[in-house]
């Protein structure tokens, strides 16, 4: 019997060397603890520094939170990469627009990561895990089913998760800037990652 496909998540920024690799590696590390083999997180850039490793200060952040930057190489976002993705989490609203220019069919599966995290927080408060998929004997299949329904559920509470300011949907780009901007990136990105991981932990099929 063919094993179920993992939930495929793509994180997107510009160069694919600062922000989206942090999101990729920390989401993957956390989701592997929630359900080993249940998720495949990758990243890409809209104007990628193709082949480059993670920027050193971003690599430090990844290690601080228990992930690894080893073996990373930046890659350019393409329609082919997007073809089999279940969920796209972008670092800014502008990146979301660029994803949709490549594949408009992803309209209902593409969010900025900070916006998506707020939606999951609202879902968690409203549903108290009441929508949790029942385990039918295959946790991986049940988990994939849950996450493929999740973008629509998240979008249904968008009006309850609006940001005070449009900029609150975005993660600052620290590339070629001082360490303070990397700290700001961490402060904006880490809570969103934590919210995604918390939702996954509380809603993983039993």
Summarize this structure briefly.
The protein has a four-stranded parallel beta sheet, sandwiched between helices. With 206 residues, the protein is α/β, with parallel strands linked by helices. The chain has helices at 19-34, 56-64, 79-82, 93-102, 113-127, 139-155, 179-203, and strands at residues 7-13, 39-45, 87-90, 110-112.
Which SSEs are present, and which pair or pack?
Layout: E1 7-13, H1 19-34, E2 39-45, H2 56-64, H3 79-82, E3 87-90, H4 93-102, E4 110-112, H5 113-127, H6 139-155, H7 179-203
Parallel strand pairs: 1-2, 1-3, 3-4
Helix pairs in contact: 1-2, 1-7, 5-7
Q: How is this structure best described in words?
A:
This protein is of the alpha/beta class. It has one domain (8-203): Response regulator (Rossmann fold, 3-Layer(aba) Sandwich). Helix content is 47%, strand content 10%. The chain contains 7 helices and 4 strands. It has helices at 19-34, 56-64, 79-82, 93-102, 113-127, 139-155, 179-203, and strands at residues 7-13, 39-45, 87-90, 110-112. The protein has a 4-stranded parallel beta sheet with strand order 2-1-3-4, with helices on both faces. The two termini are 21 Å apart.
């Amino acid at each position: 019997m063919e094993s179920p496909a993992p939930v495929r998540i793509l994180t997107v920024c510009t160069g694919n060397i600062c922000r989206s690799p942090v999101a990729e590696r920390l989401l993957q590390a956390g989701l592997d603890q929630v359900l080993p083999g249940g998720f495949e997180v990758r990243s890409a850039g809209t104007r990628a520094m193709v082949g480059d490793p993670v920027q050193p200060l971003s690599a430090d952040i990844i290690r601080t939170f228990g992930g690894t930057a080893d073996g990373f190489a930046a890659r350019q976002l393409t329609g082919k990469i997007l073809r089999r993705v279940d969920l796209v989490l972008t670092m800014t609203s502008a990146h979301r627009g660029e994803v949709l220019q490549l594949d408009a069919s992803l309209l209902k599966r593409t969010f900025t990561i900070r916006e998506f995290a707020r939606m999951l927080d609202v879902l968690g408060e409203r549903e108290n895990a009441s929508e949790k998929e029942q385990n039918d004997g295959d946790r991986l299949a049940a988990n994939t089913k849950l996450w493929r329904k999740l973008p629509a559920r998240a979008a249904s509470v968008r009006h309850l998760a609006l940001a005070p300011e449009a900029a609150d949907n975005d993660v600052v780009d620290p590339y070629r800037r001082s360490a303070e901007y990397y700290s700001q990136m961490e402060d904006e990105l880490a809570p969103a990652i934590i919210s995604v991981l918390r939702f996954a932990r509380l809603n993983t099929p039993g």
